[in-house]
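hey can u run this one w/ iron/sulfur cluster bound, need the structure tokens asap thx
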Amino acid sequence: MANATVFLGMITPAGRVAYVTPALPAEVAISAAAQADAPVQAQYRLAGPCVTSRCGFWTGEHCGLGERLVASYAETVGDPEVDLPRCAIRRNCRWFAEQGPAACAACAHVVTDAR
Ligand code: SF4
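ok here u go:
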């Protein structure tokens, strides 16, 4: 899994993630948000390393958040046809490793509303 927190993508006005490739350090997004005087999570998605048992979502065997995310997305839109986004961390992504391409369909909708 990823070793350092990275700048994964930008949040579009439509509330989707536009992935940034190649990977950039998280500091790039943090610095841009500071200059805009806005919370970083309102404009950017960051991805940190998986900490397994040190995370409340860890089930003991896999990431419960990724599992819930995919299940919830499937309930809402059915089985998605996935056009895999160009994502810089796919090789190291736990959600993708455990849930497959369905994780990517749901992932693009994961944003934090900081209002
Ligand atoms: S779920 Fe897919 S799009 Fe999201 S971070 Fe993992 S590989 Fe990238």
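The chain has one domain: 6-107. anyway lmk if its weird
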